[in-house]
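Q: what sequence does this backbone want?
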């Protein structure tokens, strides 16, 4: 982790694009990724950033930050994560930590913008004082991340099928999806149903309400 974070920006672009390559590190737990990051494995750092890129980036965008400002906040959060990793005591709280850091940075940006230069330190931002709208934003972002994490636990074919059916932009036709997997169109519905059932089970296990 002693090298500068030059790969952060390209990692973010890959993570936020529809098409991604599936790597071994994608199936690793956060704890294993963090351990590998601390051992200096750049691939693990890239995988960790890509795993949480949408979560981090979504928070400033939900606060109506411009794309440029959202990218600056994203970079700041990644740099803070890089510095904090050696001191991270509870890896299982990484998602909540990132939400807190990104929301503080976004609130700081919002306050600077609305107060026209009267800056408020990020350390002074109080999560308890969030408005109902702010809390709704964070809950929606966290739910989206939980869904993506649940998808990551699926078997490779189910994970790829769910990604193509629900995350690919523009959406692919059933015929094209079937061709992608080398399946008959008629059999795709059965496999889709089985994969969605497994996804529903994963969502329930992660505590997503309504799953």
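A:
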């Amino acid at each position: 982790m002693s090298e500068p974070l030059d790969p952060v920006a390209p990692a973010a672009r890959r993570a936020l694009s529809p098409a991604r390559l599936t790597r071994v590190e994608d199936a690793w737990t956060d704890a294993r990724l963090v351990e590998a990051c601390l051992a200096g494995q750049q691939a693990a750092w890239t995988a960790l950033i890509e795993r949480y890129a949408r979560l981090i980036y979504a928070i400033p965008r939900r606060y109506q930050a411009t794309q440029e400002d959202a990218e600056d906040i994203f970079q700041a959060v990644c740099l803070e994560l890089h510095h904090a990793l050696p001191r991270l005591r509870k890896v299982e709280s990484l998602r909540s930590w990132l939400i807190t850091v990104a929301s503080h940075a976004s609130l700081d940006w919002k306050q600077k913008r609305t107060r026209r230069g009267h800056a408020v330190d990020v350390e002074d931002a109080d999560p308890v004082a969030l408005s109902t709208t702010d809390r709704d934003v964070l809950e929606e972002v966290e739910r989206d991340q939980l869904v993506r994490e649940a998808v990551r636990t699926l078997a490779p074919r189910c994970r790829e099928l769910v990604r193509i059916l629900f995350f690919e932009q523009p959406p692919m036709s059933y015929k094209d999806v079937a061709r992608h997997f080398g399946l008959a169109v008629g059999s795709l519905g059965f496999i889709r149903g089985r994969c969605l059932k497994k996804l529903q089970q994963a969502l329930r296990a992660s505590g997503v309400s309504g799953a």
